[in-house]
Every structure is written in C-alpha cells, then in structure tokens.
Design goal:
There is one protein chain. It contains 18 helices and 33 strands. By secondary structure, the chain is an alpha+beta fold. The protein folds into five domains: 3-61, Orthogonal Bundle (Arc Repressor Mutant, subunit A); 64-133, OB fold (Dihydrolipoamide Acetyltransferase, E2P) (Beta Barrel); 138-205, OB fold (Dihydrolipoamide Acetyltransferase, E2P) (Beta Barrel); 227-475 and 536-617, no CATH class; 628-712, Beta Barrel (OB fold (Dihydrolipoamide Acetyltransferase, E2P)), CATH 2.40.50.140. The strands form ten sheets. Strands 3-4-5-7-6 form a five-stranded mixed β-barrel. A five-stranded mixed beta barrel has the order 8-9-10-12-11. A five-stranded mixed β-sheet has the order 13-20-19-16-15, covered by helices on one side. Helix 11 (389-411) packs across helix 12, helix 13 packs antiparallel against helix 15 (524-534) and helix 16 packs antiparallel against helix 17 (584-624). It is globular, with a radius of gyration of 30 Å.
C-alpha cells in the first residue's frame, strides 16, 4: 500500500476524527522534511474529491452517500437563488436560496450539502458547504458609491449578487459612474469580496465600455506582448528563394481565394482541373503559418493561449498579429505565399480516390468575393463576366464538383441546420446602423464543401498514418435526450424512425429526415433549435471519434491556421511527418502536445463563441433602442411558461412577458407548446404572425422587450415598468438583507476575538 492509499484509508476508517494538517502530521508520524510532500498528497486527494477541508481547517472524508454534491454554481439573474449543476451524471440539480450561498459566486465550483429532498415540486434543496474553486478571476462593473475609503462596485453580471469592494488606493483613478475591470484578490469570512481595479473602461453608458466589459469577462486578450511584437517585426514581408527550396512550385497555376467582402486574412485558396478520365483534381492550398510561428516561440505560446480569432461586430481580435494574419501569412493576390497543398482526385460520385499533401508555394491570381462568384455563376453581371472570363470555366467546374460533394454528404446523413443569420453593420465609431440578414449563396456552399472534403481527407490520412493529432469530433447524442426530442417533435406530427436506446444508437440520417419533414413548417426554427440542443457539442480531441453531425468517420480542422490554433498544431505535425522527422521520442512529445492543444482550444473556442454572441445581442439591443415605442410585425419563434419570443424580419428577437399580455390571463399548454387565454380561448403558438410594440431595451442584460401592439397603451406600458421595478427592488432587498446578516456575523466574530484576547490578558 503506497502513502496515498494509507492516508485515504486512515481518513475513511471508523476510528478517524476530523484533524488539522498539523494534527495529521503528528498522528501519521510525518517527518518535518516530508511536510510538503504530505500536503501535496492531501491536495491531490481533495482534487480527486476523496476528502475535503472544513471551515476550521479539518480534513474529512467526502462520501457520496453523505448527502454532499460537487458541481458548478449557476445563479439566477432575475431572482435571488441558484442551482448547483452536479459534475456527476444522473444527479438532479440542487436549488439553493441566495442566503445559503455562503460567499460563493456564480460559476464557482462548490461542495453543497443537500438539506431537503422532499420539498414542493420534488426538488432538492441545499446550502453551500465550501467553495472548492474560485472561477471568477476578474469582473467588470460600475463604481456606485464610497464610504470610509472603500468603494462599492456593482457587477455587470446580474448573476453576481455581491457588490465588490475596492480600497481607495486600488482605484486606478476611477470615479463614481465609471465602468471598471476588477481583479478579485480577497474573500473574507463574512462574505465580502475585495479587489483592485486593473482597467478603467470609461463612462458606464458608453457602448464601447459595454463591449470592452464583455470581452474582458470572457478572458479574451486584445493586446500582444512586447516579446510577441518583437518576434513579429523580425519576420520579413517577402519570401526569399531559400524558403522556396524543397517546395512544389505552383505559381504558374490558376489558384484563387474566395472570401467575404470584409475579410482581411485569407487562409485558403482553391484550384481545379477536369481530368481526361472525367475525375476532378481539386487543390486546396492553406497558408503555411507554422513556417513563421515556430514551436516554443513567444508567437506560438500567444497563439496557443488565444486558441482562436474572435470576430465582433466592430472589430476582429486576431489570434496572430496583423503583420502575419493580414500580411505574410495571408494568401493575398499577386504575391508569393508559402502553403501546404492537398490535391484530391475525386470521382463523379464524390469519392476521394487518392490524394497528395505537400509543401508548396503559390501566387493567387485573384481575391474573389462570395458576391462576385455568385453573380458569375448566375451569369447576371456582364462586367464581371468580361473581367473574370479566364477563370469562369474553373468556377463552373467547381460548382459542379461542389454539388456532387454535397449530394454525397447528404446521402450519408449529414445534418444541415438552416438557421437565419444576420450581420450587424457599424459606422466609423462602432455604433450599429443596420442589421442585415446574411444569405448563404452558391459560392458559400462551394467553398464549404471544398473545405469539408479537405478536412476529412487529412483526418483520415493522419488516422491511418497513426499520427499524434488534433481531431475535430462530434460524438453521438445521448439516447435519453433524443427520446425527449422525439416525444417533443411528435406533437407536430413528426417522429424519428426506428428504436432509440443505448443498444440502438441514433444515426444522423434519421435526424436529417426530421429536418427535411419540418422544412417550411411554422415550427421549423423551434424544432431545429430543440434538436441542436439535444446534440453534443463539437470539440477538439487527440482521439478520432468521428463527427456525428457531418456523418463523417474522420474529421479535423486543417484549413484555417491563421485564425484557429488546432489547424496550426496539425500543420506542424503533418510537416514533420512528410519531412520524415518523426521518431518515437518526438511522437510521445507530440501526443502530449495534441492532448493539451485539444483541451485548451476547446475552452478558448467556447469563450470566443460566448463573447461573439453576447456582443451581437448587445449590438442588436443598442440598435433597437432608437425604435422604442414603434410598432413591428414579427413571428412567434418560441413559447414558454413566462411568455413568448417574437422574431422580427431583421432577426432581432424580443420577449413578450406573459404577465404583460393584458387582454386575458394566459395559461401555458406544455403539451401543445402554446399560450391559451383562460376566458377568450385565444391561442398563441410558434409561427403566428403578431404585431408588437417595442417597449424597452436593456444594454446591461442585452434584452429586448415587446408588448402586443393591441396591449401597448401608455397605461399598460407604465404598469410594465412598475412591475420590473418592483421585482428589482425585491431582489435588492433580499441582497441587502443578506449583506446585513453578513455584517452581523462579522461583528459577532470580531466581538468573539476581543473577548478571547481579554481572557488571555487576565
């Protein structure tokens, strides 16, 4: 039995009583020189959730049958309560009153004691025993008031109930009314949170400050270090002959990029040939970023930590400095660029018969846009047809091949969601001036198919070459979630074919068929959204687990190394492989690298996605602010117990709260997913077209509130504002009451210390 097993065996024994660290050292006869090793073992046991430490510093066993649950805390932004989301599968969420959070904040990893499992509604209730991990390193908020040299900061996140405290010497020049970034430094026994201001974001009402706050909240780094910039400056803007040595020279071939009008970083270019045997030779040429971003360099470490570029309405936060992302790495037209090229011979059924992967040099002949390519393929613009006559035949061949590839992909069961997309257009100062719907044109689909087949080809190549690798994986969904979805969709006359259970896993083709059946139905958006939420999230992995959504056995991300680190990572591995540099020792190093890159890149991708979504929601709320009081026509996009969401033609979505539907008392029919008037029997369901009045936008919560136009009298709107205010006052009163209790506990603690000191003196 090793040391670790002996320690946990003793702590779990019947004779054990809770002991402190020093007491355990004495009882277990730990030599003084081994104290650090002993503490490390205890910390390891705590991380493994085998033991925990009480507030008094005593170690106790953590038994699953002791009514204790570990998980992540999710506080409610409108009420004063939270739910524990357990880490262990199969355990229900635990409800926690705000007064029982015991200084835990939203997103913290906590240990909760279940107090009641038989309360109303059958829910579990509990209280926080201990915070195991503080996950809020920094928070943004508004400086509200000052008392005795201590400033109070109200957090932007409504899920954070506690006001932060900052001493006057830590204010960094901020004043009342400023929005600031606060680094959390201290949690006191009485539940107060102290911090220091590390950045002043400006006036609280400025839109730019809201955006900065969102970016910082998600841990997105906007600045490059001096070391990174120094490395970047040493990189030449031109390619020399020595760099071209050993590469296939493709500069005489017709190769071009196709991207959006506003794109500045061009990762990929394409070429096509129709061969004598009728097959297609598709070339996908990807920027060789690893030639400039060397392993272990400051540039590489920075890209690894960022994981991805972040695309916001008013800016791009690049993974690499602009000198690389928009310069030497970008496949700009009419200049030499270093690339990795994959050539695929594809037959008339879309099957890849063979491929080659090689280091290359290209010179893109054109920087094409999606809009122009679509016009060329449709033959609607004589000026463009004349200008690009020399690549028109290539585009036609590409269109044919893309259709073949798409047909093959759909036949095998690939799931294509058709969610409406929009783009927020901003002016020169970053204010939203328009929300435009984005249409996926034939040119978008063309490039999409080419990138998909390149990614699949490279993934399969890496798998059978037994390379350490970073795969893009999407695992099959949980059968229980699919059963729930099937029950839901059956309300609309649609069902999934076949049995669904652990022994009969769902095939993506079955879900694709559901999407085909609901196409054009009023409930299409709602059902598609429900299905998407029933699926697993795609992630990066060192193991090839397949991609369920694409119905692909092998898949990776190979085509965007300028803006995604996983692509850059696999380029490094692939180049070493084709250069014959991989040995057993290097393979072991790369296995560890691939595992770490997969984990970190998945986390950074999630942060970027949330950041992009939050900024888009903010911009939509800011744009709609100018239309408060105006009427719009929209479609009910979803119905819930608390109201219905209405989507306007420009994709903006707002909520009509059920308690603000004045014509009747509306009851939620869960089975039919509709609201029904108690007296009038009036029904509102998904797909109904309604006229609404915009009554409020809230930039802080990024929410838009509508009322039915028929209800939106001046009196009713005032009533709506009054109800919102009452709810806010009620929540603040609960929080203030909690603060008073904390203060009283702190005073009692201080009084106890004073009495103890007096006894010692006497």
């Amino acid at each position: 039995m090793d040391k670790k097993e002996k320690i946990i065996s003793y702590i779990n024994s019947k004779e054990y009583i809770p002991l402190t660290f020093d007491e355990l050292c004495i009882v277990l006869d730990v030599p003084k020189e081994d104290n650090k090793i002993f503490l490390a073992i205890l910390n390891e046991l705590e991380n493994e959730e085998q033991i925990t430490i009480t507030k008094k510093g005593r170690y106790i066993p953590l038994k699953k049958d002791a009514g204790k649950v570990i998980g992540t805390l999710k506080c409610n932004e409108r009420g004063f309560f939270a739910f524990l989301i357990p880490e262990e599968e199969g355990i229900d969420d635990v409800y926690i009153y705000g007064s029982k959070l015991n200084a835990a904040l939203d997103s913290d990893r906590v240990l909760v004691q279940i107090d009641n499992v038989n309360s109303a509604g059958g829910r579990k209730e509990g209280h926080v025993l201990k915070v195991l991990e503080r996950r809020n390193k920094s928070l943004t908020g508004i400086v509200e008031k000052e008392k005795d040299g201590i400033f109070r900061i109200k957090c932007d996140r409504e899920r954070i109930y506690t006001k932060l405290r900052v001493k006057s010497e830590d204010m960094l020049g901020a004043k009342i009314g400023d929005r600031v970034l606060v680094e959390l430094t201290k949690y006191t026994d009485d539940g107060h949170v102290y911090g220091i201001i590390t950045k002043v974001l400006g006036d609280a009402d400025a839109l730019s400050g809201y955006i900065e706050a969102i970016v910082l909240e998600h841990g997105i780094n906007q600045e490059f270090s001096e070391e990174v910039l120094r490395e970047t400056e040493n990189i030449s803007d031109l390619i020399n002959e020595k760099e071209i040595e050993g590469r296939r020279d493709l500069r005489n071939k017709i190769i071009f990029t196709i991207d959006g009008e506003n794109a500045r970083d061009f990762d990929d270019a394409v070429s096509i040939e129709k061969q004598e045997n009728g097959n297609y030779l598709l070339g996908v040429h990807i920027a060789d970023v690893t030639h400039y971003v060397r392993e272990g360099s400051a540039l590489d470490k920075s890209a690894f930590d960022r994981g991805t570029s972040v695309y916001l309405a008013d800016r791009v936060i690049p993974m690499l400095p602009k000198k690389l992302s928009n310069g030497i790495c970008s496949l700009n037209p009419h200049v030499d660029r270093l690339t990795l090229s994959v050539f695929m011979e594809i037959d008339e059924n879309g099957g890849v018969l063979r491929h080659t992967l090689e280091k290359s040099v290209i010179r893109s002949v054109e920087r094409m846009t999606y809009t122009d390519v679509t016009k060329l393929l449709e033959g609607t613009d004589e000026r463009l047809l004349k200008k690009y006559q020399y690549i028109l035949s290539d585009l036609k061949i590409m269109e044919d091949l893309a259709a073949i590839l798409r047909k093959r992909r759909m036949e095998r069961g690939s799931i294509d969601f058709d969610f409406p997309e929009s783009e927020v257009i901003v002016n020169e100062v970053g204010e939203p001036v328009e929300i435009a719907k984005v249409e996926r044109e034939v040119s978008h689909k063309l490039i999409e198919e080419f990138m998909l087949v390149a990614n699949e080809t490279i993934a399969e190549y890496a798998f059978w070459s037994d390379l350490p690798f970073v795969y893009r994986v999407h695992e099959a969904p949980d059968s229980e979630k699919i059963k729930e979805f099937n029950d839901f969709v059956s309300n609309f006359g649609v069902r999934i074919k076949g049995r669904i259970d652990d022994d009969n896993p769902i095939h993506p083709k079955a879900l694709q068929q559901v999407l085909e059946k609901i196409r054009g139905m009023p409930e299409e958006l709602m059902i598609s959204t429900y299905l998407l939420r029933s699926l697993m999230k795609a992630k990066y992995s060192p193991n090839s687990l397949g991609h369920f959504g694409l119905a692909a056995k092998y898949y990776t991300h190979f085509t965007s190394p300028i803006r995604r680190y996983p692509d850059l990572a696999i380029h490094r591995i692939l180049k070493e492989f084709i250069d014959g540099k991989l040995n057993d020792e290097r393979i072991e190093e790369l296995k560890a690298f691939a595992a770490e890159a997969s984990f970190v890149s998945t986390e950074r991708e999630a942060a970027a996605d949330y950041c992009e979504r939050d900024v888009e929601d903010l911009m939509k709320a800011a744009y709609m602010s100018q239309f408060v009081g105006e009427n719009f026509s929209g479609v009910v996009s979803s119905v819930t117990a608390f109201g219905m969401f209405v989507e306007l033609e420009n994709t903006v979505e707002g909520l009509i709260r059920v308690d603000l539907m004045m014509s009747d008392y509306f009851i939620y029919d869960e089975e039919e997913k509709q609201l029904v008037g108690e007296k009038t029997k009036k029904v509102y369901k998904v797909g109904d077209r309604v006229n609404v009045t915009l009554i409020r936008t809230d930039l802080m919560s990024r929410q838009i509130d509508f009322m039915l136009a028929e209800d939106a009298t001046e009196k009713n709107i005032k009533r709506a504002y009054k109800r919102e205010k009452e709810k806010s006052i009620e929540k603040q009163a609960e929080i203030k009451n909690m603060e008073k209790k904390k203060a009283k506990r702190a005073q009692n603690l201080r009084n106890g210390v004073k009495k103890s000191n007096k006894r010692r003196k006497h």
